[in-house]
Amino acid sequence: MILKEYIKSFLKNRKYMLFLILTMVFAYGCYFTYDSIHIDDTAMGRYYVDGWMLRQGRWGIYVLTNLFHMTEYRPFIHKFCTMGSLFFACLLLCSILKRASGNKIKDNLLTAFSCLFVTYSMINEILFYVGSQWSSTIDYVFTAGAVWLLLKEEKRIWDWILAVLSLSFGISLYEVSASVYIVLVVIVLLIKNHYQEEELRSIKDSVRQGLPLAGVLVCAVIWQTLIAYMFLAVSGLSSTLRIGDSLWISGNPINVLKTFISQMVTVYGIHAIFYLPVAELLAAGICNLIFFIHALWKRKWNRAFLWMILGIGSLSMSLIAGAPAYYRAGQQVFSIYTAFLFCVILFLISENKRSRWINLAYLGIAYLIICQCVDLNKWEYVNYLIDQEEQRVAVTIGNKLEQEYDLTKPVVFVGKYRFSNNIRKYTHVKEGSSKDLLAKKMMNQVPFPVGYRDVYIDDYGYKYVELHNSILAWGVSAFGEVNTEILNYFGMLGYELKQGTLEMYQEGVNLAWDMPAYPQLGYIRDCGDYILVNFGE
Prior knowledge:
By secondary structure, the chain is mainly α.
C-alpha cells in the first residue's frame, strides 16, 4: 500500500476519526477560543525580519513564516495550520506503525495511540505560552515523512535523498526533530521485532537495518547545517550556534555532571508529583526499564538493545545539551514516547485474552486521555489569566505615565515583575503545604550546587513548570538589551514610549534600591533625563 491508501483508510474509519476529532476539539477548543499575546510576539520582527531564526539555524520556520507573510502577528491561520499539521502528523505516525507491523496492528491500539499523542499536555510549554506554534507540529510531518520513505521495501536513490531533505527540513524547523526521528526509528524496529521477527533476530540485524537510517540522520544534520550557513552567508548575518553551547564543554565536566544529575532528578522525577505530563513520562520510563530488564532476563538481546536505545533516544537532546528542558529538549519526542509505551502495555493486556482486564485497560487509557485534555485546558486558561493580568499592569502603568509624566523623555524599566498569587497558585506548590514540604524534603536529598535550588523555589513555594513566565519580567533585559521587548509590548497596547540608554538603565538599577516597587505609591520617578519605573525584585 502507498501512503495515500493508508491515509484514506484512516479517514474512512469512522470510529477512529470520531474519537480523534472529538479528542482534539475537547483538548484544543480553548486554544482557538482564547487569544493571548505570547512571549515571542513582541519579537516577531527580530526573529523573522531581522533573521534571528536564521542565526539559530532554524531556516525552515524563517522561510515558512516569510513565505506566508506572518512576520508581524499570528493570525488565525497560524493556529489552524498548527492543529492541521498535528492532525496530519497523527495519521502519518499511525500509517508508519501499521506498515511496520505488516498491517497486523489493531485499529483500537492505533486509536489509543493517536488520542494519547495529540493530547500529551506538555505541548502547552511551547504551544500556549511561547507561541512557537506551527514549527512545533509541522516538524512532526516532515520527520515522519522521512521515516515513511525509509520503510519502503525497495528504496530507490530518490527515496534516500527525499528522506534526507525531509528530515533536514524538520530539523530546521525545530532541532528536537532529530530526537523524534531516533525514537520513531527505534519504535519501528521494535514493532518489526515483534510482528516480523524473522527480519530482526539479532542485534546484528537491528544494526544492519539501523545504520543506514542513522546515516540518513547524519546526512540530514549536515545538509541542514550547510543550508543554514548558506542563508547566513547570503544575508550577512553571524551564527549564534556554537559547539560550546553544550554545558559539557562550557564548564568543569564534574560540576556540570553534578548539576545535570540534580536537574534530571528534579525535572523528570520530583516534578512528577505535581505535573501530569512528567508523571506520565516517568511512568513510561519505568515501563521502558522493565521491558529492558525483562528482555535481558529472557536473553532476547536484540529486543533489550532496542529498548535501551529507545530510552536513551528519548532523552538525547538533554544528554547532548547537558541540561533538561521540556520545551527545548523533549516536549515533542515525549508525546510519541509516552503514547507508544502506554500502548505497549495496552497491547500486552489485550494479548492476555481476558476481556475483563482488556475493558479496564481501555477505560484506564480513556481516563488518561481525558486527564490530558483537562490539563491542556487548564494551561491555556492559566495563559489567558497571565495575559489579562499583564495587560492590566501595563495599562495601569501606561495610563499613569501618559497622564502624569513628560513622555518626550525616555522611560526606563528596571526590576523583575512577579505574577500575583492568583497565577502562581497554578504554577507553584504553596510554601508550607504538605506537598511543598515533600518536594523540599526530596530536593534535600539531591546534590545541588550551592544556590541552585533557587531555580525551583521562590517566596511563594516550589515551582514545577518551566515556562509561563512574565513578558514584563523577560522584556526588561531580553536579548541583553535595555527594555526593547517590554517597550514593544507597551507599543502593542498603544503606548509609544522612548527607549533609554544603557547608562540610564544602570543608574536606574542603583536608584531602584531606595524606591518602592510596583504597585506601591512612588514606583515611578522622574529622574531628570528619563522616567524610571521600578518592578522591584
